[in-house]
Amino acid sequence: MFSSTGSLRNSGRMLSGGILCGSGRVKAIAPSLQSLAGPRLCVPVSSFSVMPKIPDDLKQSGSLPQIFSSDGTEYGMLLDTRKMSKLKPSIVQKRLAECKTYEGKEKSIRQSPWKLNRVCQLAAGLTLEEALTQLKFCDIKNADLVAKVLTRTSNLADIKDGLQISQLEVAECFTTKSMMLRRIKPMGRGRHGIMHHKHSHIRVVLREIDFPLRILQQKSLNQKKKWLWYQHRAENDYQASKAKRDEMLRLVEQQEKQELERREGAKGST
């Protein structure tokens, strides 16, 4: 419901600028956690990498009154995003193309592609957390296999770029035909036919979630609040994972240094 300028963190990395709105201005949309005189954005200044600057034309605009807190740690402007035009598909595709993607596969699965694709359609388009939850309670055959492929691909994202499960979504999940084994089908009166043992392939693409874009695309204030909470949780998960990884690297370097000193001491004693 609000527009603010500055830099917002997207899945653990800073995004300079924000989202292109219908008017063409670069903005970042975030929902309000409070409701004072209508929708309002309350963003702590500490959440920005640089001090945000409000454009001069917005300062002079009487239809967008500025809201500042008494201590100067929060600022915002009144803006109803329901009256704004939708983002052009080209803008959405351009932002999604900049997000990191990770591909996972599973080949030669002993199941019909049509039956297995029903499970894949259940997970496609959801966040990774939601997809794993849905597959956990799905009774269809090989639902656990699809969840295994998703988890394996998310581990690849963690190894390469340190992205956590809360920062990923299932962009693609579908099945294709594999080689079908032909076998003899015995029939009555000395006849026989041909039966096919069907096999399938699974292809999964996980994509980094563009949280500012998702927040802008939501139509209700509650949905914006939900995705803003998702963004904060993803940031916390990323920071915790980064701290653990840095500590592990520090311990490895310390061990290597101690091993080198021990070898040098052994050579000096001899």
UniProtKB/TrEMBL annotation:
SUPFAM superfamilies, sorted: Ribosomal protein L22 (SSF54843)
Database matches in InterPro entries: Ribosomal_uL22, Ribosomal_uL22_bac/org-type, Ribosomal_uL22_sf
Entry's Gene Ontology BP terms: translation
Domain of life, per lineage: Eukaryota
A Pfam family hit: Ribosomal_L22
GO MF annotation terms: structural constituent of ribosome
Gene3D superfamilies the UniProt entry points to: Ribosomal protein L22/L17
Keywords noted in UniProt: Ribonucleoprotein, Ribosomal protein
GO CC entries: large ribosomal subunit
Similarity-based family: Belongs to the universal ribosomal protein uL22 family.
Protein name: 50S ribosomal protein L22, chloroplastic
Organism: Cylindrotheca closterium
